Amino acid sequence: MNHQPSTIGAAITARGLGKSYRVRGHAPPTLFGSVSSLVRRQPYETFWALRDVDFDVRKGQTVGVVGPNGSGKSSTLGLVAGTITPTVGEVRTEGRISSLLELGAGFHPDLSGRENVFLNGSILGIPREDIKKRFDHIVDFAGLHEFIDMPVKHYSSGMYVRLGFAVAVEMDPDILLIDEVLSVGDIAFQLKCLDRIRDFQRRGKTLLFVSHALQTVEEFCDEVYLVHGGRLVEKGEPSEVILQYIRRYMGEGGYLYTQEFGSREAEFVDVKLLNESGSDSGLFTAGGKMTVEIRYKAHKRLEKPVFGFSLKTGNGYYIYGTNTQIMNVPIDAIEGEGVMRLDLSPLKLLQGNFFLSLSMHSWDHATQYHRREDWYPFAVKNPTDAHGILEVDCTWEHLGGTANDR
Amino acid sequence: MGERESGGIWLPFPLSPFPPFSFLCIDMITLFQTIRSHRELVANLVSRELKSRYKSSALGLLWSLLTPLFMAVIYVFFLRLLARGVPLEQIVIGVFAWQFTVNSVNSGMSAITGNSNLVKKVFFPRVLLPVSVTLANLVNFLLSLIVQFVIIGIMLVMKGQFISGWVWAMPLLILYHTMFNLTLALLLSSANVYFRDTQHLVGVFLSAWFFLSPVMYDLGLLHTFAGPDSLIAGIYMLNPLSGIITGYRILTLPGMACPFNGWAAAGFIWPLVLFMISLKVFKHAQKNFADML
């Protein structure tokens, strides 16, 4: 094998990777259908689920794949896992692969949890002896002690997935493929899973990660690939690529869950999110400057309007919201064009992707003039070593201890 | 899960100086190596197949014996009504062997389509699915053979006879029969992915095949219609099951005539070729399994 310099130390290498499907309607394949199409020489359409994709994932790297639905994320993972055969190009992997593509895929409903653990383990390629040794550990992790000898068809969907996850991570793979499975189970189990994934990272394993939970991708990944329309559009630093993604495909007029409504008696005309260099790039630094310049136009005189804003994380969690009424900044009236400035400096947000929503409404909340929900995405980079999405004011003080006495 | 495609296979001997033969054989060797390196998975899949088949039934594995027995009783009853005396032992042997093939066809057909989420989501050699379904049916068949020997032994003793001295050769016949069933499972499992009509076609085909095979009659009955050396009797022997079922009878019952001729030899050899072809077909077909399911 002739290793090109770029592939040294690569866990996953893809070159010119492409996968196409013949589009042939929704009917399942039938003998009659294929004979008749042969006779009639129907031209079929080719749909490229993925095309011209090149990438190298280094050993120990965690890479996130983001993109809108149907953009080719899952195909990418399927090709790496080997379940899908590429139409063109090749993908090479080094080391044992385990995929959390669909948890409990090999489970048989009539068999007990115990039998399924062994079955699923052997499908994933774990020697029986190893499963025996780790069996208690698996059951512990899944938290299914009293149910392990029950047929899995009586399990709740959460129990099912928990057992599947426990087996898959117990395989101790070199490469772990994760497809949107971390949103399963209850909160306690999700936290356990994330812990497990951090543990994987610490042990230098390679992770390829597909998720719509942008905050999680941002938090875990060293690099993010943006896929759109079957092409690898962008790759690089997580917060920047995710911002690109949001701006290009989810933001204004995109298919993100954005909403715009109101009576339009007054409208937002132009909104700029400015950082300390005065640029509208949408990239901010924690603790730095952030000002929002809101140009509006009121089509008639409006008495005592209220301006409001709110912030959400990339995952859609509501963080903060306030308005000029709450903060007691009354505006007598607006008419025609004007500018409103919202200053968020020093920025208390720490790290990740966020959405800004803006609104204008009447003093008594009876009329919503204009509201743009989740309309303005931006990313915050964290220059500190602290973690999280928010900076919290705090001080430490050592009030003395036994060490002082000696 | 390391080897995607076993590229170079080392063999301690040259395969064959005849290239088409080695071309066909290479898949067979790959198959055996795949099964060997995935023994645990095969064992688990076989036991899953057996357990799931009988898990929620009260009589469990007994059904694999009861079904062919009931069938044999029904055939004997109706054949007696028609006043065609075919010995009960022959029908029992015929029905048990026929059941092995029918079960392999029916469960082999859905070996891939019935495991679609597994095939779509996890990478492992797909060929193990039809293989383990066939092996599960083999286990079933071996269990039923025990019962068959007890029944036939009792019947023979009542007649003052004893089981044929050729019975030691039966494992070879079972191996051949299993290989033939695996061939069908390989072909039908992949065909069913591409054409879902397969299951309906197979249903019709099976009922015709049942009457064209010596299940509820023997070759002697056939020869009353068409002489042993006639063309029809010859073509009849091209059906692999004619040879297989007759083979079981010869190896079990004493004093059976051995009606094998050139036609029977051809009927014995072409399934071997078909087996190798079916491996090629499956290997080619599996590339698109995940897309078609």
Q: What's the helix and strand layout?
A:
The complex is a heterodimer of chains A (406) and B (293).
Chain A: E1 10-23, H1 31-40, E2 45-58, E3 62-66, H2 73-81, E4 88-93, E5 97-100, H3 113-123, H4 128-142, H5 157-170, E6 175-179, H6 187-202, E7 206-210, H7 214-220, E8 223-228, E9 231-236, H8 238-250, E10 259-261, E11 266-274, E12 283-285, E13 291-303, E14 305-313, E15 318-323, E16 333-343, E17 352-362, E18 368-381, H9 402-405
Parallel strand pairs in A: 3-7, 3-8, 5-6, 6-7, 12-18
Antiparallel strand pairs in A: 1-2, 1-4, 8-9, 10-18, 11-13, 13-16, 14-15, 14-17, 17-18
Chain B: H1 19-37, H2 39-54, H3 63-81, H4 88-109, H5 116-121, H6 128-158, H7 170-194, H8 198-212, H9 219-225, H10 231-238, H11 240-252, H12 262-285, H13 289-292
Helix pairs in contact in B: 1-12, 2-6, 3-4, 4-6, 4-7, 4-8, 4-11, 6-7, 7-11, 7-12, 10-12
Quick tags:
A: 406 residues; alpha/beta; Rossmann fold; Coagulation Factor XIII, Chain A, domain 1; 2 domains; six-stranded mixed sheet; 9 helices; B: 293 residues; mainly alpha; 71% helix
What do these coordinates show?
The complex is a heterodimer of chains A (406) and B (293). Chain A has 406 residues and is an alpha/beta fold. Helices cover 24% and strands 35% of the residues of chain A. Chain A is built from 9 helices and 18 strands. Chain A has helices spanning 31-40, 73-81, 113-123, 128-142, 157-170, 187-202, 214-220, 238-250, 402-405, and strands at residues 10-23, 45-58, 62-66, 88-93, 97-100, 175-179, 206-210, 223-228, 231-236, 259-261, 266-274, 283-285, 291-303, 305-313, 318-323, 333-343, 352-362, 368-381. In chain A, the strands form 4 sheets. Chain A has a 6-stranded mixed sheet with strand order 5-6-7-3-8-9, with helices on both faces. In chain A, strands 10, 12, 14, 15, 17 and 18 form a 6-stranded mixed sheet that branches. In chain A, a hairpin with a 4-residue loop joins strand 14 and strand 15 (318-323). Chain A is globular. The model of chain A is unreliable at 1-7 (pLDDT under 50). Chain B is mainly α and 293 residues long. Helix content of chain B is 71%, strand content 0%. Chain B contains 13 helices and no strands. Chain B is globular, with a radius of gyration of 20 Å. Residues 1-8 of chain B have low confidence and may be disordered. Classes of the chains: A alpha/beta (406), B mainly alpha (293). Chain A binds chain B through residues 21, 28-32, 34, 78, 81-85, 96-97, 99, 101-102, 105-106, 108, 110-111, 115, 118-119, 122-125, 127-128, 151, and chain B through 1-2, 4, 40-41, 43-45, 48, 51-52, 55-56, 117-124, 193-198, 201, 287-288, 290-292.
